[in-house]
Design brief:
Layout (H helix, E strand, L loop, with lengths): L3 E3 L3 E5 L12 E8 L7 E6 L8 H15 L4 H9 L1
Antiparallel strand pairs: 1-2, 2-3, 3-4
């Protein structure tokens, strides 16, 4: 299984399978890191079977869904910048 995909929004990577307490199956972390966030990203753990056929199309979809979650609207900061 390929473990890294370059998407239009950044890079999606899959961790090596690992065991987790309380879960009878191995898990895999799927992580998205946009190009413009200095290494910051967002991850979600999945059952290893659910990502067995993870491909470029899945990576594009994952990045499209999670990328907006990294963009925090900060009205107070935006108002200060606008006043300056």
């Amino acid at each position: 299984m390929k473990n890294q995909f370059v998407t239009a929004r950044g890079v999606v990577s899959l961790s090596k399978p690992y065991w987790s307490l309380g879960n009878p199956n191995q898990m895999v972390d799927v992580t998205f890191k946009p190009d413009d966030y200095n290494g910051w990203g967002i991850s979600k753990a999945f059952d290893v079977d659910s990502v067995a056929n993870f491909n470029q199309e899945n990576a594009e979809h994952f990045s499209a869904v999670v990328e907006p979650k990294l963009r925090i609207d900060m009205p107070a900061v935006n108002q200060v910048e606008a006043a300056a």
